Amino acid sequence: MNIDNSFRKLTAIFAITAGVLALLSLVVGLSGVNYDFEVFSDTSSLIAAGSTAGNAIRWSYWFNMLGNYLLLIPLALLLFQWLKSVNSSFAELYTLSGLIYLILGATGSAILAATWPFLIDQFEVASTAAREFLVIEFQVVNAIAEKGLHGVLQNLAGAIWFLGIGYLLRSKHMGVGNFAFAIGVFLVLNTVGNVFNIEALSLLGLTANILLGPIWSILIGIFLIKGNLE
């Protein structure tokens, strides 16, 4: 890989840090609702979770913004530099999709980090009549960020990125390539589940991705440090 060594090391550190923060975002977010994952699928329960939960959710989504998205931008650029020797045109297409995925994902996380805790805090002190409107506002924000940005647009762009780079990476490192390809498959399942409102399918894709993505990021960071992706 003809890439500046300092950039490779920085990318590796970012990738490992990203994986750790992504996993931390899960722990922090779930801690706010006593590790009851189902609360996140019920907007009425989530908005009524209280200010302590809101603060945990705020930090969870800031960690998610960094760990699952922004800190992976150098990795996307490094992989492009490496994979353009395999197929320049497709490497450009997949990398563009990856950058769209990362930017949309970070945007959605930033929206949720700012709005969900605010609405949760407002709900806690609101009157009964006002709470009905807050629930509607909460559902609208959820539809825009979770179902729209995160659920369809981001996942579709991410599926193209992971499937594409996974395929190209197979010629360089079979294990890393297959791992990325598997993440892409689950992103497809998540996207299809959201488009056709098949909750079981979207939940399967989401669960697999939030667990596999950080692990892949950490592993590829370790491989970069050790020089196993030369």
From TrEMBL:
InterPro entries: DUF4386 (IPR025495)
Pfam families: DUF4386 (PF14329)
Transmembrane regions: 12-33, 61-81, 93-119, 152-169, 176-196, 202-225
Keyword match Chaperone: no
Domain of life, source organism: Bacteria
Signal sequence, start to end: none
Keywords: Membrane, Transmembrane, Transmembrane helix
Keyword Protease: no
Record-given protein name: DUF4386 family protein
